[in-house]
Amino acid sequence: MLDASGVLKVSDxxxxxxxxxxxxxxxxxxxxxxxxxxxxxxxxxxxxTINSQGNRYLAPVSPFAKEVTKRVDTNTGQWRAWNWxxxxxxxxxxxxxxxxxxxxxxxxxxxxxLDAMSSSMVGTITSGAGVLGCCRGSxx
Length: 140
Description:
Elements: E1 7-8, E2 12-14, E3 20-23, E4 26-30, E5 33-35, E6 42-45, E7 49-53, E8 56-58, E9 69-71, H1 76-79, E10 84-87, E11 90-92, H2 122-126
């Protein structure tokens, strides 16, 4: 899911199993389609920097699972300093992203190395994402 530079590859996520969780470092979450999460779409622990750009977050029906973000195994006093931001994300069905830390300060220079496409393009970008339906001995 992450490439060598810590960038999450473009995907279409139906997060009904194990939600995303990151630890330490810088993470660009760019142009993904998050749907069907049961707890949260992106979780983190151990002070990661998360830069969410141009993603589409479609919250589930449950009123208890609308938050996109989850700070795992930490208290509010600690995570308030973690640098998590959302820029150009499309938040649907009551989804919300809890920002924290320095926001758009210089600490995001390293994490902002990608140019995200508009979140309105996520459906088009991810329409072919997922497992290929290939059969052995046939072309995909």
